[in-house]
Specification:
The complex is a heterodimer of chains A (368) and B (309). The longest helix of chain A has 29 residues. Chain A has 14 helices and five strands. Chain A has 368 residues and is an alpha/beta fold. In chain B, 33% of the residues lie in helices and 28% in strands. Chain B contains ten helices and 14 strands. Chain B has a six-stranded mixed β-sheet with strand order 6-7-8-3-9-10, with helices on both faces. A four-stranded antiparallel β-sheet of chain B has the order 2-1-4-5, covered by helices on one side. In chain B, strands 12-13-11-14 form a four-stranded antiparallel β-sheet, with helices on both faces. Classes of the chains: A alpha/beta (368), B alpha/beta (309). At the A-B interface, α1 and α8 of A face α2 and α3 of B.
Chain lengths: 368, 309
């Protein structure tokens, strides 16, 4: 155990003393998230909305006023027939329609529950998501003030509908995508480089003649990167949630476990690469060209896999990245539990075991 | 058998090839415990391959190697506990300090710097003032001392040093050999390889190697004593022309430059007198000619053996 500890301490020294490594570990995740995040604008101001008020009572008018006076929205028109909703969207000016149910105020007063629907133009998925969130926030704020004087809390059942793009494809893809990318970069590239470096400097020779077992050497090399990659995963998630207001609907534990599984998969791939290559340069080349590009292009991160030629779809299916992105997206955006993503999880686990098995087979106790 | 216990390394019929190149060709020899044993030969003689096989880092194609009672193929785990190996390139972590390098190597062998401090004290004390310095910033001689300290930190019974003095300044080389002699007094068997012939005389026994074969194994003084040919050291004002002219001389067997001198061996023993040789060289236009009979050095023997191969 002491041997192992000495090894891990040494690895941390390597990482700590190499400014480039530190830059990759901390700088790249932050920069990427920021770039992807801010390219997709998240500022809304003076957006045109329409209101279809079926009850026309005090409460519904009060809420409408509150929304309009927030400064984010301008009331473009009032609608009095459902058929006008789609019509108003098609003109391209109105981005959101708020629909108050019948007897809105009365229901709220008597039953404690009232229905409200928010319909957004989701052809610009990001904006649609933002404005519905803003609208909901304003309504919740109104409710909170109302509830301060009520004993039984009142509820407004808000139903959000995204028109033209119901599944909201493309929204928040940058967080799962960046995670897939960064974790792959750190885990695979850094481990393969750090093992290749030992070969290059001839220190591997001494490690091999030492009584250290190959497993100890590999785990010792990898352990610091598990920790660091995991910290990066947390960092990316925190930035996604706090800087870009990305929702986490599912369990955060499950989310972190998924990230950990992906990290282990990427690390075992890194080990596999390092057992094959002899120099840092080749390790870097394989990790960058061989892995980074597929991660970006074939994971569904930038281009939807469904739109790819069949051959590329097959390639995407035998690469592990896609499955991770599906899992992350489902947990964060759909809030699903293990029951829905265990298949993808198994695929990642399978990849991990395959890579480890191949590495163990390839790792040599001797030189060639 | 009593003598069996005294054998530190036993190599039998060992061969190893890289593709078509035979790096080692049917080597057999034994090294006694506590010996300071030198492998001497030019680059490509097979020294590094041999050391890697003894250190269990490479598998032999044919033949067997035993370190103590352990077979390098079967019992490599045991061998790795009792050997200290210093590869040709100094295998230090450049971004770690002197102290951290030592602590690291101590920890992976399951020991600590404090525990074996006595063993490396003489070597380590020279670099201890720089213990906070990164290994990459040390001079060649200091790197060498640190690498040796690292190889020694787990108290090995056998020390395998692959060209430890290559690329190290003359003063550090002398210091290094003094250290090896000191380690020998502690009973450590030392295998050292070097391309420098002048270091042969510092070993108990040497093996002269060339192209994967051992030309001869003996005590350095016996090797030179067994050299029966007579050698003349010749000197003149134009050493380059001197070599050419001597090669053309009718009695010549071999001519090799040795520093400022040219070592000259005649066919079938000395048949020309010094005066005859001087006259010949005068004719060829040489001045300040100086001829002296000398005893053979290891390098003379090596050159001669190489020629016979």
């Amino acid at each position: 155990m002491n041997r192992f500890r000495g090894f891990v301490i040494k690895e941390f020294f390597h990482i700590w003393r190499d400014p480039r490594t530190l830059l990759i570990l901390v700088g790249i995740p932050v920069a990427q998230i920021m770039i992807f995040g801010f390219v997709i604008s998240n500022d809304i101001k003076d957006l045109h909305i329409a209101v279809y008020d079926q009850s026309q009572d005090e409460v519904s008018r009060e809420i409408t006023n509150k929304i309009i006076s927030s400064g984010y929205f301008i009331l473009d028109q009032s609608i009095d027939h459902p058929s006008q909703i789609e019509e108003s969207f098609k003109k391209g000016i109105v981005r959101e329609v708020i629909v108050f149910g019948q007897d809105f105020g009365e229901n709220l007063e008597r039953l404690g529950v009232a229905d409200l629907q928010i319909i957004a133009d989701a052809s610009d998925a990001n904006t649609a998501n933002l404005i519905t969130n803003y609208t909901q926030a304003i309504i919740n704020d109104y409710l909170k003030k109302l509830n301060a004087t009520h004993q039984i809390p009142l509820k407004i059942e808000t139903q959000v509908r995204m028109l033209f793009n119901e599944e909201m494809k493309g929204v928040y893809m940058f967080v799962p995508g960046t995670m897939a990318l960064i974790l792959m970069l750190i885990s695979t590239m850094m481990t393969s480089i750090s093992i290749a470096r030992e070969k290059e400097f001839g220190t591997m020779e001494v490690l091999l003649v030492s009584p250290l077992k190959p497993v100890q050497i590999i785990i010792g090399k990898v352990a610091p990167y598990v920790a660091l990659a995991f910290l990066d995963a947390v960092l990316i998630l925190l930035m996604g949630v706090y800087v870009f207001k990305m929702p986490v609907l599912g369990s955060s534990t499950l989310l972190l476990l998924t990230a950990l599984l992906y990290i282990l998969m990427a690390l075992s791939l890194g080990i596999l690469i390092s057992t094959i290559v002899k120099t840092q340069q080749v390790a870097m080349f394989i990790s960058l060209i061989g892995l980074l590009l597929p991660t970006m292009l074939l994971s569904g991160f930038i281009f939807p896999i469904e739109n790819m030629p069949l051959i590329l779809q097959w390639v995407a299916n035998i690469l592990p990245f896609k499955y991770f992105i599906i899992m992350i997206k489902d947990i964060m955006l759909k809030g699903v539990g293990v029951a829905y993503i265990w298949k993808e999880g198994l695929v990642l686990l399978g990849f991990t075991l395959l890579f480890i098995a191949l590495s163990v087979k390839k790792f040599k106790l001797r030189l060639e | 058998m009593e003598t069996q216990n005294q054998i530190a390394v036993k190599v039998g019929q060992l061969s190893r090839s890289y593709g078509k190149v035979k790096a080692l060709d049917l080597l057999s020899f034994q090294i006694v415990k506590g010996e300071l044993f030198g492998f001497i030969g030019p680059d490509g003689a097979g020294k590094t391959t041999l050391f890697r096989i003894i250190a269990s880092l490479l598998l032999p194609d044919v033949g067997s190697v035993k370190v103590g009672d352990f077979d390098t193929v079967k019992d490599f785990k045991e061998i790795r506990k009792i050997t200290g190996y210093m590869p040709g390139r100094f295998s230090l972590y450049h971004d770690l300090t002197v102290e951290e390098n030592l602590n690291f190597y101590a920890s992976i062998f399951g020991t600590s710097l404090e525990e074996n401090y006595e063993l490396i004290k003489d070597i380590y004390s020279a670099i201890e003032p720089f213990k906070k310095r990164r290994a990459g910033k040390l001079s060649g001689g200091m790197k060498q001392k640190l690498a040796l300290s690292c190889a020694l930190i787990h108290k090995p019974e056998i020390l395998i040093l692959d060209e430890p003095t290559t690329g190290v300044d003359a003063v550090s080389r002398v210091e290094f050999w003094d250290m090896l002699k000191h380690l020998k007094t502690m009973g450590i068997t030392i295998l050292v390889s070097t391309p420098y012939m002048d270091e042969a005389s510092l070993c108990d026994r040497v093996a002269l190697m060339q192209k994967g074969k051992i030309l001869t194994i003996d005590k350095p003084e016996s090797i030179t004593a067994n050299f029966k040919k007579e050698i003349r050291a010749v000197r003149s004002d134009n050493i380059y022309q001197l070599i050419i002219d001597l090669r053309e001389y009718r009695h010549t067997e071999s001519v090799h430059p040795f520093g400022q001198d040219v070592h000259f061996i005649e066919k079938g023993g000395i048949s020309t007198t010094a005066t005859e040789l001087t006259d010949y060289l005068h004719q060829k236009g040489h001045h300040h000619i100086h001829i002296q009979n000398i005893n053979a050095g290891i390098e003379d023997c090596f050159m001669d053996l190489m020629k016979e191969e």
